[in-house]
Each structure stands twice: as structure tokens, then as C-alpha cells.
């Protein structure tokens, strides 16, 4: 299992598929020092290895020293910028022909594809709106890409950028919540809907943490705001889905009212999840 440390939100979202490969959790941390809560979780997990995502501008050398001081072997994955870092992460994955492409200038679209990318082991490649980074072009140049999922509208990833990829399918909506539903609907046949995860769409950490957890059960992660998004409710109702709803985060980010709306009187609610150490080899890893 891997621990991932990151202060840069986009770096963190690109790293999510690594959690599937290494069968490990993702832990978030601040830049300057190792949080006491993070340290306690590492010790509870009895982790042996840490993968740090991003340069010292995201996670400082001081944090790395603190990790080593408690017995972890550390590896850092970073590039010249967030776009290059997304490529460096992609190079660590086992390429299966499919890639995701999202803007590197904001987090909502990358959030929506992150859980699916984690389940399928697909890299999340970051781009600018009107220019595809050279590092991304170099990565895909000799790849036999069978599907390239462009997340978001032409306003965030232009058709010109999309044109650099073969076999393009654009997944988009009117806003981040519509885009989230477009992603889930596209991959619905590959998902198990007996359990669904719900996280706020207003920020990235909870949805990121949920993506690694949801991947273990092939579950979707629905993004919500102060109220349950109508399209999410419609989707569950139209497909006659009465799921076990797992809300990620405190009630100030996903309220009990939102959960009740989604439950539709099923009464199957879980909360306050704690990630337990899986039964894997002794070289337990964590990603930061």
C-alpha cells in the first residue's frame, strides 16, 4: 500500500490511480511539516514505504526527512510543473490503452474522473485549455491509445487539444455536477452500484480520499453541493438503485439532509469510515 503526500491538489488527483496499483491509501499533508494526525495514521498502518507526489514546493524536504525518521523509505515523483508531474505519474502505471485528459488549471473535472481512473488504472493527463503540453505529447507519441476520455467542455479542454489524441470521447456537462454524472453514466456498466460514495464538489480532498476507497468495490463517487444534486437523484431513481450511501466528510460538507435525500428511505447509511490495513505483503506503502 502506498501513502501519498501532496499539497498541490492537482498532483493529488493524478496520483489516485497509483493507489490501485500499489493497493494503498492516499494521505494528504501540508507542505512544511508532517502533521501529527498523519504520523499517527502511518504508524497505525505500519507502513514501510511512502511515495511523495510533487516537488519540494508541494511537499518540503523537511516532511521527507520526518518520514524517513520514522522508518519509511521514500520515493518522490515530480516533474517540472503539474503537467509534467501528471506524465511522470502516468509512466509509473501499467498502460492499458486508455487515458483520461483533464484541465490542469482547476480541480472539479479531474475529481470526477479520478475515481474511475483509479478503478481502471488509467493515467490522468493534465493539459492547458488551448495548448497540449509537450511532455504530454511526448508521452502519447508511441502509445497505442484505444480510448482518450476528455473530461469537460471545449471551454476547459479545447477541441484543438483533444485533436492530439486518437479515439476521443468527450465527457461533459453544464457544470461540475453534470460532468460528474456524464462520467458515471459513461462507465455505468463497469460499476457496482450497491454502494455509492458521496463527497462535496466544492473542494477536492474528500473526493480524492473516496476515489481510492471506491475503487476497491468498483463504486461511483457522486459529487454534491448543499443539497443533493437533482441529476444524481434522478439517476438513482430511474435505474431503480437503492444503494448503501457512504458520505465522506463531516456534516458541514455533506449534510445529513443530502444523505437522506439520496437514500430514498432505504435506511442503508454508513459514516465515519476508517481505512484498515489490508492483508498484503509486509512492505506496506503509503502515498503522499
From TrEMBL:
Pfam families: CW_binding_2. Gene3D superfamilies: 3.40.50.12090. It comes from the Bacteria. InterPro entries: Bact_Sporulation_Assoc, Cell_wall-bd_2. This is N-acetylmuramoyl-L-alanine amidase. The lineage of its organism: Bacteria, Bacillati, Bacillota, Clostridia, Eubacteriales.
Amino acid at each position: 500500500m502506498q501513502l501519498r503526500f501532496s499539497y498541490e491538489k492537482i498532483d493529488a488527483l493524478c496520483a489516485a490511480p497509483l493507489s490501485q496499483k500499489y493497493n494503498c491509501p492516499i494521505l494528504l499533508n501540508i507542505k512544511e511539516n508532517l502533521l501529527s494526525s498523519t504520523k499517527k495514521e502511518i504508524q497505525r498502518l505500519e507502513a514501510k514505504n511512502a511515495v511523495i507526489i510533487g516537488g519540494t514546493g508541494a511537499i518540503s524536504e523537511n516532511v521527507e526527512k520526518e518520514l524517513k525518521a520514522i522508518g519509511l523509505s521514500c520515493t518522490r515523483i515530480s516533474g517540472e510543473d503539474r503537467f509534467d508531474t501528471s506524465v511522470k505519474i502516468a509512466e509509473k502505471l501499467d498502460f492499458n490503452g486508455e487515458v483520461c485528459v483533464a484541465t490542469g488549471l482547476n480541480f472539479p473535472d479531474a475529481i470526477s474522473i479520478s475515481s474511475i481512473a483509479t478503478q481502471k488504472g488509467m493515467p490522468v493527463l493534465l493539459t492547458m485549455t488551448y495548448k497540449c503540453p509537450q511532455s504530454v505529447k511526448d508521452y502519447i507519441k508511441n502509445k497505442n491509445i484505444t480510448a482518450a476520455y476528455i473530461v469537460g467542455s471545449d471551454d476547459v479542454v479545447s477541441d484543438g487539444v483533444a485533436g492530439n489524441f486518437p479515439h476521443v470521447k468527450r465527457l461533459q456537462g453544464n457544470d461540475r455536477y453534470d460532468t460528474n454524472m456524464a462520467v458515471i453514466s459513461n462507465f455505468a456498466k463497469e460499476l457496482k452500484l450497491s454502494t455509492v460514495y458521496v463527497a462535496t464538489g466544492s473542494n477536492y480532498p474528500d473526493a480524492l480520499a473516496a476515489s481510492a476507497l471506491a475503487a476497491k468495490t468498483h463504486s461511483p463517487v457522486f459529487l454534491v453541493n448543499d443539497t443533493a444534486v437533482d441529476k444524481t437523484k434522478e439517476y438513482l431513481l430511474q435505474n431503480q438503485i437503492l444503494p448503501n450511501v457512504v458520505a465522506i466528510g463531516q456534516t458541514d460538507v455533506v449534510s445529513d439532509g443530502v444523505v437522506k435525500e439520496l437514500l430514498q428511505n432505504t435506511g442503508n447509511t454508513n459514516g465515519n469510515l476508517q481505512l484498515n490495513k489490508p492483508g498484503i505483503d509486509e512492505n506496506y506503502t503509503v502515498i503522499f
